[in-house]
Amino acid sequence: MPAGPEAVPDAVPNDAGGAPRPYHHGDLRRALMQAALDAIVEGGPANLSLRDLARRAGVSHAAPAHHFGDKAGLLSAIAAEGFERLAVTLDQAWRQTGSFLEVGVAYVRFAASHRAHFEVMFRPELYRPDDPAVARARAAARSLLYGPLADSSGADPRAAVAAWSLVHGLATLWLNRNLPPQLGDDPEQLAREVAGYLFRDRDRPPRAR
Amino acid sequence: MPAGPEAVPDAVPNDAGGAPRPYHHGDLRRALMQAALDAIVEGGPANLSLRDLARRAGVSHAAPAHHFGDKAGLLSAIAAEGFERLAVTLDQAWRQTGSFLEVGVAYVRFAASHRAHFEVMFRPELYRPDDPAVARARAAARSLLYGPLADSSGADPRAAVAAWSLVHGLATLWLNRNLPPQLGDDPEQLAREVAGYLFRDRDRPPRAR
DNA sequence: GCGATAACTTGTCAATGTCTAGATACCTGG
DNA sequence: CCAGGTATCTAGACATTGACAAGTTATCGC
What we know:
The structure is a homodimer.
Chain A: H1 28-43, H2 50-57, H3 63-68, H4 71-97, H5 100-113, H6 115-121, H7 132-151, H8 157-175, H9 187-199
Helix pairs in contact in A: 1-2, 1-6, 4-5, 4-6, 4-7, 5-6, 5-8, 5-9, 7-8, 8-9
Chain A binds a DNA duplex through residues 1-4, 7, 11, 13, 22-25, 28, 49-52, 59-63, 65-67, 70-71.
């Protein structure tokens, strides 16, 4: 894809005018991850370019391969991190509110605030879903999605699927701007209102609001 | 329903022994679309290659550009066709059953049976969402999603969003194999069961619970 | 110190998207 | 019937990309 409107030459060893960049970046892996997240927010995972990330980080075009192997390796790392952070988010929401609805709201809030992670996590063809770190993190997040409902008596797995589907669909439709604008631009509020249609008689009273 | 492209000898440029392929393909546009749908089912929209499509159709590498301009043009055509067919599907379901739930089930069935279309339609960064044909078809499909609920008295747009989110989330999670396998592999049946949790007091009550 | 090793660079190659120019078949008007 | 025009397709070229191989430089363990 020669999509770049302007062709910037590959990594220049030194910043223009600044002090010479040290040979070792220091935390290139983290810097490349962050650059990737920025790039994905800007243009989606499909338009991601390893060489562009290298330029953003000020390193040579082949440096990313050293840390991630290849493009799928980078995206696998992003997916794993995303599932880890999602698990933390859902766990906190459940612990702090005891409300199944608030777990769903937290899911939507995560998608909106970690858009790049979220867009990668649910596109398995972009990365390696069987990567151990990915599989572990995904399993943890999944158990937190099903867990709260499994705790309640007479749990039906289809109820959890309904809840997960609702918040997942809302999150993806919101991210893709497929919802009517008159619903406002606050995904969290929208999630709380919309999810109420499903959760209304299945919830403990929330302790926090 | 979308029958494969035939009636044209799929000869490769230097096909050994066969009759020489005619200079004009006959229906190259349709053949390229079908090849693209096949390729997307195999590897996702991100791994789509125009040159690969040209090889599949037995034409030169630049032939696709003549019909679609560029890659985004091809994907725009796929998205437009997808929204058109989705609108037909939803319209039929509503007319034939008069059931919100069955419209939702039809949505999931469409996603499963038109996987390639569906995967493109909801990735606006891959195509040109403002393309007139796309915008028109998308608006038609959207009105059929909101229409049935808007007809009923005291319609709340958030109810429609809840319904759309549920079936959309279920469809995407099913396509990405993110649902527990013990729920079976029939998306239509799963949709009918799961959607019952939301539609239950707005529609014919489902058997369960 | 000093060798081992990790981190990064440079060079290269096949593949891709897109552009330009040219070749070929169809088709309409006379 | 046939001549020119146009739609369709081919051929070539170029910049960009992902991946690989081999070399260079800094850091770390001992």
